[in-house]
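About this split. The held-out portion is used to measure sequence recovery: a designer receives only the structure tokens and must propose an amino acid at every position. Recovery is the fraction of positions where the proposal matches the reference. Here is one held-out target exactly as it appears in the evaluation file.
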């Protein structure tokens, strides 16, 4: 999920449970103009960081411990990453999303869009 600076959902990409989330990162940020792109360590790949910097934004992604060159990131800006987690929490207030009642991914994604309206209205 991609959110704006107020924690409102902008874009969703639904993947299977066995897929790594970082495989969809470039599609999530494509087309957005941002000053900063915040993500957790799971998104610390050279490809993602370079794509963010090529788009003119600053990647605020903590480096993985296994990296030989530890990149610097702004820890104060990184604290705002919890907006994404809080948005997930707001969406999971809808029982249908929290327990994944829908069998078809298209129905599930449609309800995610419907539930995300709540974040924009309130």
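Reference sequence for scoring:
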């Amino acid at each position: 999920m991609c959110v704006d600076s107020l924690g409102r959902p902008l874009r969703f990409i639904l993947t299977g449970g066995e897929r790594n989330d970082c495989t969809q990162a470039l599609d999530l940020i494509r087309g957005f103009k941002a000053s900063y792109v915040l993500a957790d360590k799971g998104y610390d790949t050279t490809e993602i960081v370079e794509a963010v910097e090529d788009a003119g934004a600053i990647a605020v992604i903590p480096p993985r411990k296994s990296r030989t060159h530890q990149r610097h990131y702004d820890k104060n800006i990184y604290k705002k990453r919890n907006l994404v987690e809080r948005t997930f929490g707001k969406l999971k207030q809808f029982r249908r999303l929290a327990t994944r009642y829908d069998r078809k991914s298209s129905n599930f994604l449609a309800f995610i869009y419907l539930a995300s309206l709540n974040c924009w209205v309130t």
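Annotator remark: The chain is about 40% helix and 10% strand.
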